[in-house]
Amino acid sequence: MAGSVTPWEVKGEINYEKLIKDFGVETFSKLPKIFEENLLFRRKKIFAHRDFKRILDSIKEKKPFVMMTGLMPTGKFHIGHMILAQQMIFYQELGAKLYIAVADIEAYNARGQNLEESRRIAVDQYITNYIALGLKPKNCEIYFQSERSKDAKRANAFYRLQNLLANHITFNEFRAAYGEISPAKMNASLLQAADMLHPQLKEFEGAPLPVVVPVGIDQDPHIRLGRDMAKRLKITRFVPLSSTYHVFVPGLDGGKMSSSDETSFVALTDDAKTIKKKVNKYAFSGGKATVEEHRKLGGDPDVDVSYQWLTFFEEDDKKIMKIRDDYKSGKLLSGELKAMLIEKLTNIFGDLQKKRVLAKKNLDKYV
Ligand code: TRP
């Protein structure tokens, strides 16, 4: 099935090469060491960008910059969400100021989920896990789209920006960027543009500055329009938005990972027994039907979900290469590969359980 990728829906086969061309985003040339040390950049899990040099320059020159991103609070926090959390923490350690939007208005407008439900999921699932994974309260603003700030000056500035942006985009541009559009979706688009641009207002960071928005590639239409609107709105001279795009972690069956399908993901709150069961039962295997055949012909790591997932979690490049080679040659069996993944996930997640208990006690330092 030919895939389709929009901010409202991702379906079918995803062809990243084609998306790079269609969306007009750039691939990375050589990155500084600190990025190469990060698994997600090194393994090209973060595979494309817009205007990223501006961020690299800010880091090099030790100038302030912002990392701004958002979360759609639906369902359980799973390993697909985790790679964005890892990026937040990475940028925080690099010295960025963080802005994190809980897209509760978008969840209402685009998915019909009420605000209370969004708040509950955002806090219990997302923010608690961000903290457990290492997000620090310093230089970090987490806010709800439905309630930007208790400070009237700041809140006014945010919602003023969203409203003024509406005058700087046409209906045809909306249609061209999104395909499908409705009043609710237009609102979500303008609100997300305000999310991405408002750190540059005087009420927030004081003056225009570089902002990097790490997202999945499905979000690029929002970035494109946000960049266009910023050029036309003259209330301040916005620095053009920078962005990076990460791949989607494949679902257990090799298709899409979806928070509404328990058998497609492993959640960070899944216990050891559940992890083991899910991987053994649902992880799509690139192995052969019988051990004899597998020994003779070898497996296919490129379609094997256990292998794919390990490339997100096993830090050691040599180990990953060896797993790949051994699987291809037939030396490593499918069951053995699954056992490796189960062990890795159990180790990482077991530790998080305790950290989440602590995180819950510290929530008020974040929201
Ligand atoms: N639309 C994003 C999603 O579907 C959530 C989001 C809201 C966002 N505001 C943002 C992402 C600003 C990046 C920047 O997940």
Keywords:
single chain, about 375 residues, alpha/beta, Rossmann fold, Tyrosyl-Transfer RNA Synthetase, 2 domains, six-stranded mixed sheet, two-stranded antiparallel ribbon, 8 strands, about 50% helix, about 10% strand, globular, binds tryptophan
Radius of gyration: 21 Å
CATH architecture of the largest domain: 3-Layer(aba) Sandwich
What strand order characterises the main sheet?
A: 3-8-7-4-5-6
The H-and-E topology, N to C, reads as EEHHHEHEHEHHEHHHEHEHHHHH
- Outline the biggest β-sheet: 6 strands, mixed
Residue windows where pLDDT falls under 50 for at least 5 positions: none
User: How many β-strand stretches?
Assistant: 8
Strand content: 5-15%
Summarize this, please?
The chain has 367 residues and is α/β, with parallel strands linked by helices. The chain is built from 16 helices and 8 strands. The strands form 2 sheets. A 6-stranded mixed β-sheet has the order 3-8-7-4-5-6, sandwiched between helices. A two-stranded antiparallel sheet has the order 1-2.
